[in-house]
Amino acid sequence: MPLLAYGAVSMYSLRNGAQETVVQGNLNVARQVSEQIDLYVTGSVKILKAVAADLQQTALAPWQQDRILKNYVLEFPEFRELTLVDENGRPTITSRLGKPSVTVPSADSAKIDGVLMSRFSVDNDLLPTAVLAVRLSDGQNQGWLVGRVNLEELWRMVDRIRVGDKGYASVVTAEGQLLAHGDPDEKSRVARGDKMSAHPLIQLLNTRKTDQTASAEYADARGAILGVAATIPSLGWTVIVEQPQSEAFAIPISLQKQLEIAIALALLAMLLVGYFWGRSFINPILALTRGTRALAAGRLDERVLVASTDELGQLGDAFNNMADRLVELQDDVRKKERQAVFGRVAVGLVHDLSHPIQNIGNSCKLIVKMFDDMEYRESFKRTVEREFEQVKRVLEDLRNLAKPKPLEKFPLDVSKALHGVAESMLASAENSGISLETEFAFGPLYIEGDLYALNRIHRNLLTNAFQATPPHGRVVIRTIRRNDEAIIEIADSGSGIPPERLGTIFDDFVTTKKQGLGLGLALSKKFVEQLGGAISVTSQVGLGTTFTLRFPITKARPSQLAAV
Fold first, then answer.
1. For the chain, what is the mean pLDDT?
2. 405-563: which CATH topology?
3. Which of 77, 144, 493, 527 has the fewest CB atoms within 10 Å around its CB?
């Protein structure tokens, strides 16, 4: 970018500087031509005034005045004719052999140093001429000295001006008349007396009050043109020098192309060097980036290879050391996590199995002594079956956690299923001093479910609610029909769950109780997801907890009901 900026500034400066140099060179040519034309015309005016001074000498006879006029015409070929005109405009003496051809210009004609000058015209030889007239006021010779000036030398002067191969000069009078043109193809315009008032340079000079030079770029039938102009203050004329831009700016254009090529080559070389050098600098960074992403994705065996010995090499070594340390830490964490999980499982199993096993052991000791007691034998049977059922439930929870049991889905009325669970657990609620209430949606509420899995879910949630609710509290079971969903809510007025523990409450081996494996909610979530539902929890400490289950409503019905 700095090289491109430098190249752009350089090309801009080169182009503008070179173009300005060309413009100034052409302006210098125009100024020199204007000075030469000024000397040429003012020289003719001075000659005419010198003749007038000689004629105003006293005691000159007419033949002497005639001789003076003829001598000046012979000596100064710029004048084709010199004629004395009286106050009435009648010619009195002339250098011409025949009848005089000049008249006094009108009073509104241009004046040069007090001398009247007429508009220029083309004579019979197609050469430009003009008439000059100076006032005679010596008392003896009242009238005018009138001379016809031949401007053929002015043409030759303009023809000699060349700017390059295709640049020419032209002269325009104060009235906008084209007086001379160096381009042979444009000389016919001089003969026609074409006006140049609409020329861009003439219009530009007319808008300026003090500046006597101008330059512009414009287009005409010849193509893109660079034009400059300089005025002749004493005459009010304008010298115009025009040159095709393709020729005028040929050197700047060539230099600009060379500079563009040089900048392109320098940029290419810089890009190549920068690419190879930059890759050696960026590759270690890319390797570190890939390694960091691999670590973030859990691929702790990823390592980076940085061959340099600079700061990047040191950073690569530090990264590899960090990865090695992470592997060690992860192994240590896994070991400790396994120990913690095994410890919690062991503690939970001891807690959940010690009581049933102890009851079975105590009952076995008593049955030895009271074997003949039929009533105790029946009590022993019920106790053993009840405690073995508890042991079986704990072991089955562990098995379902490791390998979930496939569920058999069929249409069932979730309100009816909940009603049965509520009836079976009503005695437990009464023993705990808790009010168990039900609020079921009107009519059947069918979902695709497994009765065993749903009963396990509901019993787990109700058991947790009973354990979290103090005496005289209430647990509410409600079902809601909302759009195409069957919503089940089990709410209690217990102690609530702290907000920081809500995010992990459904994880394996996580429990808010002091004892137990923490499998109830984890299994409940797995069952709900297997049935295509979702479970969530909201809780406020001291106010209670609400578990919400959502299942899609099905239009299918049990086979017996469908047959009826």
1. 81
2. Heat Shock Protein 90 (3.30.565)
3. 77
For residues 217 and 377, give the distance between their C-alpha atoms in angstroms, rounded to a whole number: 126
Could you give the residue range(s) of every CATH 3.30.565.10 domain in the chain?
405-563
CATH superfamily of 1-248: PAS domain (3.30.450.20)
**529 is written with which tokens?**
């997801």
Question: 3-state DSSP call for residue 373?
Answer: coil
HSE (side-chain half, CA atoms, 13 Å) at 450:
18
CA distance 174 to 231: 9
Residue 435 has pLDDT above 50, yes or no: yes
Phi–psi pair at 149, nearest 5 degrees: -95, 130
Alpha-helical (H) ranges within 130-225 are 152-159, 187-192, 200-207
* CA angle (218, 221, 222) in 5-degree steps: 75
State the DSSP H helix or E strand holding residue 249, giving kind and residue range, or none if neither: none
What pLDDT is attached to residue 429? 87
Give Cα separations from 256 to 5, 238, 261, 563 (angstroms): 15, 33, 9, 96
Q: Rounded to whole angstroms, how far apart are CA atoms 1 and 343?
A: 65
Looking at the DSSP assignment, which residues form a beta bridge with residue 548? 489, 536
Which residues fall within 8 angstroms of residue 145, CB to CB, at 6 or more apart? Answer: 48, 51, 52, 55, 82, 83, 84, 85, 133, 134, 136
Q: How many Cβ atoms from other residues are within 10 Å of residue 77's Cβ?
A: 10
Residue the block writes with tokens 């034998």: 377
Enter the pTM of the model: 0.46
- By the 8 A CB rule, do 154 and 177 touch? no
* Residue 171 and residue 151 in contact, taking contact as beta carbons nearer than 8 Å: no
Looking at residue 504, its amino acid is T
User: What residue spans in the chain does CATH classification 3.30.450.20 cover?
Assistant: 1-248
